[in-house]
Design goal:
The chain is 27% helix and 35% strand. It has helices at residues 15-23, 35-43, 65-71, 106-109, 113-118, 129-139, 150-156, 205-215, 248-259, and strands at 5-9, 28-32, 49-56, 60-61, 75-83, 87-90, 101-104, 122-125, 144-148, 159-162, 172-179, 191-199, 220-228, 231-242, 261-271. The strands form three sheets. Strands 1, 2, 3, 4, 5 and 11 form a six-stranded mixed sheet that branches. With 280 residues, the protein is an alpha/beta fold. The longest helix is centred in the last third of the chain and has 12 residues, at 248-259. Helix 8 (205-215) runs antiparallel to helix 9 (248-259).
């Protein structure tokens, strides 16, 4: 059964919502309260895809998401790079000089320090970006604005007093699209494979496990470690590599990796977003 829905975390107008519009404009975007709710919505077949942010070019990886991916039961089928353009949103008819305070998620407030300082605007921490826009619209205070996406302004009837006010113009968030079923049928020169693994408890296990990728010419674009169940001695690794598991060199590298690991779980095989090259 298909629903033609894609689930995301946050209120309508969140950056995850904008990612849904960019990556799957033909699907209905479905807001969820938490990342766990997004995953469960897809697992219970109320939506076909999950849109999950995994890392930001300014602030690094999204907290907790790497713990959720391996246990989700879902499979990565695509990635989407979305530029984080921030707008100052206020009640219609308001002028910039009238704004005294701006509300947003603490991360977004930190991305607009230069603009806020220049215009003498004080930051107020809100629950999230789109929720802040919703609250500004509900309060009806002309001196209060929100820092959020242009989409949030469109949804909540706010006017944009300034656009692209972020301090870093290359600020980008990477999202993963996840489905109940894997899709390994697609083949191109820009395929990616994501997986998690745990190394065996032997000397230099990680060094030996990585050797297979070097000797077989497989480019590893990401390798991150994180604790499992809060235990310092149990470390799990998340990795992205270029290539498809059916490629001979990738297959040899994964075979060698499996010899030094106690667990290896391929999370997805998918084409690279064309915008990935602009982040190099």
């Amino acid at each position: 059964m298909t629903t033609n829905r894609i689930a995301f975390q946050g209120e309508p107008g969140a950056y995850s919502h904008a990612a849904c519009r960019r990556a799957r404009p033909d699907m209905e975007a479905m807001p969820c309260r938490t990342f766990e709710d997004v995953i469960e919505t897809v697992r219970s077949e109320k939506a076909d895809l999950a849109m999950l942010p995994v890392e930001n070019s300014t602030y690094g990886r999204v907290a907790d998401i790497h713990h959720l991916l391996p246990e989700s039961g879902l499979h990565i089928v695509d990635e989407a790079f979305v530029r984080v353009h921030i707008s100052l949103l206020a009640l219609p008819g308001t002028e910039l000089h009238e704004i005294r305070e701006a509300m947003s998620h603490t991360v977004l407030l930190g991305q607009c320090r230069g603009f806020m300082r220049q215009h003498g605007i004080r930051g107020i921490t809100g629950a999230d970006t789109a929720g802040s826009a919703q609250e500004v619209a509900a309060r009806g205070i002309k001196s209060l604005a929100a820092l959020a996406s242009p989409l949030a302004g469109e949804i909540y009837g706010l006017s944009s007093l300034a656009d692209q006010i972020e301090d870093r113009q290359n600020n980008t968030t990477r999202f993963l699209l996840m489905s109940r079923e894997p899709d390994r049928r697609r083949r191109s020169k820009d395929m990616l494979t994501s997986f998690v693994f745990r190394v065996r408890n032997i000397p230099a296990a990680l060094y030996k496990a990585m050797g297979g990728f070097a000797t077989n010419g497989v480019n590893m674009t990401k390798l991150e470690s994180y604790m499992v169940d809060g235990v310092f001695t149990a470390t799990q690794f998340y990795a992205d590599i270029q290539g498809h598991p059916d490629d001979a060199n990738v297959q040899r590298a994964l075979d060698e990796l499996s010899y030094f690991t106690s667990m290896l779980n391929i999370l997805g095989v998918y084409p690279a977003d064309p915008l990935r090259k602009t982040q190099a």
